[in-house]
Specification:
Elements: E1 4-8, H1 13-24, E2 28-32, E3 48-50, H2 57-60, E4 69-72, H3 79-84, H4 86-106, E5 111-117, H5 140-158, E6 162-168, E7 171-172, H6 185-194, E8 199-202, E9 208-209, E10 212-213, H7 214-226, E11 232-238, E12 244-245, H8 246-253, E13 257-260, H9 274-280, H10 288-302
Parallel strand pairs: 1-2, 1-4, 2-3, 4-5, 5-6, 6-11, 7-10, 8-13
Antiparallel strand pairs: 9-12
Length: 307
């Protein structure tokens, strides 16, 4: 018998991919999104849409009724945005997450899978990054997502709700935004190349990121929702377990480059995904080169409609 799942932010990049995967396996999907950064066109056919903001607890209450589980992907991501708009991002990323957890409690939702972020780690002296390290967020966004993890854990402690937090590492793939709140170095480079501009590399380009393809992230979410070894507020890294320099990304995309001043951000990220393998049975399957090929192909076919 099919189950009904709620995907907050289901019109966005990751949320829409989760929605598609749920429908493909025979489940029913309800999307909760205010379409501020997500796109109606991202929502797969067959999914129900409730248009509301997670900052409004009354407006979102109806969306949780009859729901088996919640994939909480709604957020205002991106480090720079949180620095420029700390109040607005705090309202969505912290208060909005609390609203989601409280609404789930009221309707006795069984499990909430929270989209956390490796930004919580900040700069560390140890690589790869593992879940036992003390978080050291370097931005309001990193702090906000870290607070969300704690709220999820407390929900499991006090509200009889199963939760698990997945710390994503630099997710990329089709439907990535090229502008707005959720924009990554890969999408920036692709947009710049499409416009005939040089690829702007911050600093010397030696900084590394653990780029993780969206299909692998979706699989992690499904395993986290269904898994019997999680549900007590665990925090689990979801990263490919290998990293690549910004210069390498620029080389794959091709074209002239221009270096710009560095910004405040961790120099390197690299996930230790041992816990994900142990608790979720999750193994990243998409190689970076293959993911880049699929992402570039999608962008070239959709670049005129991305803005």
């Amino acid at each position: 018998m099919s189950k009904l799942y709620l995907v907050t932010g289901g019109a966005g990049f990751i949320g829409s991919h989760i929605s598609t995967a749920l429908l493909a396996r025979g489940d029913r999907v309800r999307v909760l999104d205010n379409l501020s950064t997500g796109k109606r066109s991202n929502i797969p056919a067959g999914a129900e849409l409730i248009e509301a903001s997670i900052t409004d607890p009354k407006a979102i209450a109806e969306a949780f009724k009859g729901v088996e589980g919640v994939f909480h992907t709604a957020a205002l991501p991106r480090v720079q945005l949180s620095i420029e708009q700390p109040f607005e991002t705090n309202d969505v990323n912290i208060t909005g997450t609390l609203n989601v957890l409280l609404a789930a409690r009221e309707t006795k939702v069984k499990r909430v899978v929270y989209s956390a972020s490796s930004s919580a780690y900040g700069d560390q002296t140890v690589m790869p990054l593992h879940e036992e390290l003390k978080p050291n967020p370097k931005s309001p966004y990193g702090l906000q997502k870290y607070v969300g993890e704690h709220y999820a854990r407390l929900a499991s402690m006090f509200w009889n709700m199963e939760t698990v937090s997945l710390r994503y590492f630099n997710v990329f793939g089709p439907r990535m935004a090229s502008g707005g709140a959720y924009v990554t170095v890969i999408s920036i480079f692709l947009q710049q190349k499409a416009e005939g501009k040089p690829l702007t590399i911050t600093g010397d380009g030696t900084q590394t990121r653990d780029f993780t393809f969206v299909d692998d992230v979706v699989n992690a979410n499904l395993l986290a929702m269904d898994g019997s070894k999680v549900g007590k507020g665990e925090v689990v890294n979801i990263g490919a377990g290998e990293n690549h320099t910004v210069n390498e990304v620029a080389g794959i995309i091709g074209g002239p480059t221009a270096n710009i001043p560095p910004r405040v951000e961790p120099h390197d990220t690299l996930a230790d995904n041992k816990l994900a393998r142990e608790l979720l049975g999750w193994i990243p399957k998409v190689k970076f080169a293959d993911g880049m090929e699929r992402t570039i192909e999608w962008f070239q076919n959709n670049s005129t409609t991305m803005r």
